[in-house]
Amino acid sequence: MVPMPDQIPSKPDILILGAGPAGLSTALHLARGYPALAKRVLILEKAHHPRPKLCAGGLVIDAETILQRLGLDVSTVPHVDASAAHYDFEGRGFTIRPRKQHVLRIIRRDEFDAWLAGKVRSRGMEIREGVTVKNVQPHEDHVIVETDAGTFSAQVVVGADGSNGITRHCILPGEPAHTARLLEVITPENPVTPALHRTQCGASVARRAGVLPARRSNPRIGVAFFDFFCVPAGIEGYTWDFPTQIKGSPARCWGIYDANLHPGWNKPPLKKILAEEMARHGFDLGTVELKGHPIHWFHPRAALSVPRVLLAGDAAGTDSLLGEGISMALGYGALAAQEIGAAFEHVDFSFSGYKRHLARSGLGRVLTARWLFARVVYRLKWRWFQFLLWRFLKPVVILVAWLFVLNWAREGNSFKHNPARALRGGTQSQRRKEEGGKKQG
Ligand SMILES: Cc1cc2nc3c(=O)[nH]c(=O)nc-3n(C[C@H](O)[C@H](O)[C@H](O)COP(=O)(O)OP(=O)(O)OC[C@H]3O[C@@H](n4cnc5c(N)ncnc54)[C@H](O)[C@@H]3O)c2cc1C
């Protein structure tokens, strides 16, 4: 029996584990494409929204494209718009400054995720908070999910529990985990030692000094900086410096990303590199709270599902080139909803086509392309190569960024499967009974 819209499913057909962007996007896409299935969804989340989440909060245009398609306007969430993004290597680099729009919209994740969770609730779906998943056991005709608040059974489970989540380990115990390392700090907006800032100016710092006053005069307009100076030292990534806000007060978010594609490489400590970069700009890492979190990145050969269980977002794997994952998590949600819709429609919960469908989608193509670039660009870590790359290959880098880094979500997610049929889907046994009844009739 299909429950009424305002009924909370006691035995949900679809359990989503984790209420981050991936889990919430899966729910929102189910509500959009398969409203009857959405009534049979339950989301389990270990924290309580608004919950802290370590993240710089840079939303690229693809995230906004997906949200707009869901009828959601993210500009209602507190944010700072970065009007430009500057990519740098030892003072060489380029700035992307779109004429008509911001290049990044920077939100705080506690606020953004709580807003998204509110949208899910307003569509009639329940998020049960304070429930930690302990184990996920797929069986032939159902999945058992053990939590600290009891045991749940469902037809389908979506593992959207992030980079440190448990679902992936339970369903794919032997799979290797590919994880990037990140550190992040929040600082006040202005340097503590402006004199140091001026005396130690390199070309890059000087350039930055030129753009900083504009941001200071209007804290809602800023520049997001990405600095790849650490690549020759073996760090497969960059440091960042984003304008942000904390409860309405201007602030900056600094961090360092190391894709860690080659964990065996001899690398300097991330903290040291970040501290040096911040000091060059007059900020003292020693006076702020440093936090770290891994990112599980996408590998084209990694499995993404087993029968009845799908992975989405960081749990499945995100971008290894830049560690960008919010738009990807939203994109995974669209794809996961489509797979679930098709599964109920065809009464086939093998999810055998999920990886193939991902590979063919804009999301899959961009994840694969970024994985390839990361392997090439970070491997060629010689200073002279990086210097040439940033100095002379600028147009190529911009073209590649335009083709492979942005705009993948424009392709959209057409619901190829007939939602109306999926609505009739019911559980497998219900469907069989229904069909048997019709035949007899
Ligand atoms: C330092 C840092 C900076 C970043 N900066 C950016 C950026 O600027 N832009 C960008 O696009 N991406 C950025 N990312 C990546 C981005 O944060 C992730 O890709 C994104 O959060 C993935 O979303 P998700 O929904 O898959 O996972 P998450 O956001 O991690 O959500 C998973 C949810 O599952 C819950 N959960 C986990 N385990 C359990 C359990 N056992 N039981 C129940 N619930 C559980 C968690 O509480 C959480 O709410 C950054 C990441 C880091 C670490």
Topology readout:
Layout lengths: L13 E4 L3 H13 L1 H4 L2 E5 L12 E2 L1 H9 L9 E11 L2 E5 L7 E4 L1 H14 L3 E4 L3 E6 L4 E5 L2 E5 L1 E4 L7 H5 L7 E10 L5 H6 L3 H15 L3 E7 L9 E10 L2 E10 L11 H11 L10 E6 L8 E2 L2 E3 L14 H21 L7 H7 L1 H18 L3 H10 L1 H12 L13 H6 L3 H13 L1
Parallel strand pairs: 1-2, 1-11, 2-7, 4-13, 11-18
Antiparallel strand pairs: 3-6, 4-5, 4-6, 8-9, 9-10, 12-15, 12-16, 13-14, 14-15, 17-18
Helix pairs in contact: 1-4, 1-9, 3-9, 10-11
Bound molecules: flavin-adenine dinucleotide.
Any descriptors?
18 strands, nine-stranded mixed β-sheet, binds flavin-adenine dinucleotide, globular, 23% strand, disordered C terminus, 441 residues, six-stranded mixed β-sheet, single chain, alpha/beta
Which regions are unreliable across 5 or more consecutive residues at pLDDT < 50?
1-10, 195-207, 209-220, 414-441
C-alpha geometry = globular
> Based on DSSP secondary structure assignment, what is the total number of beta strands?
18
Quaternary structure classification: single chain
Strand content: 15-25%
Determine the structural class based on helices, strands and strand pairing.
Answer: alpha/beta
Question: What's the helical proportion of residues?
Answer: 25-40%
Round the mean pLDDT to the nearest integer and report it: 86
* Helix segment tally: 15
Please give the alpha-carbon distance between the first and last residues.
Answer: 20 Å
What's the alpha carbon Rg, rounded to whole Å? 23 Å
Largest sheet properties: 9 strands, mixed
Bound small-molecule species: flavin-adenine dinucleotide
